[in-house]
Amino acid sequence: MSSSNKPVIVTKSSDLKASGGQTEGMIRQNAITGLTDNICASRMIAHPHTASAVHHHGDQDTIVFAFSGHGTVVSDGGKKKQVLAPGDFALIPAWAEHQEVNEGDVEVVWCIVRSPGPNPHVTNLEGWS
C-alpha cells in the first residue's frame, strides 16, 4: 500500500463566503473548489419565500443533501415538485433543467456536490425550454 502525498483539506463553515452566480434570496457558497479535477462542493442557503432561476449545471451531475428546512426541487418543465426534508438526498442529472424553491418561513440549507469538474457550473435560463 502506498500513501498519497496529498493532504486532507478542511473548509470551516465560518470561512464560507458568497461565490459564483447568485439569485436574489439564495446564497451559493463554494466550500471545496479548485482542489481536484473531479469533484466540487458548495453550500446553498435559501431565504424564506424565494426561488432560484430555472437553470442547469451543464455536464455536471449534482447530488444535494438537505441539512435544514424543507426545500423543493422543481423539474420536468415546472410540472414536477419534490420536497427535500432534512436528511434527504436528491440526484440532479447533467443538463437537467430545474429550480430550487423555498416556500417556507425558515431558511433552507443544502450541501451540493458536483462532478466532474473542479468548480460548479450554473447556467441560468429565461424559463423552461
UniProtKB/TrEMBL annotation:
> Which organism encodes this protein?
Elasticomyces elasticus
Which Pfam families does UniProt cross-reference here? Answer: Cupin_2
- Give the InterPro entries listed for this entry: Cupin_2 (IPR013096), RmlC-like_jellyroll (IPR014710), RmlC_Cupin_sf (IPR011051)
Can you give the residue ranges of the Cupin type-2 domain? 44-111
The protein, known as:
Cupin type-2 domain-containing protein
Q: Which Gene3D superfamilies match?
A: Jelly Rolls
Segments carrying the region annotation (Disordered) are: 1-22
Q: Give the top-rank taxon of the lineage listed in the UniProt record for this protein.
A: Eukaryota
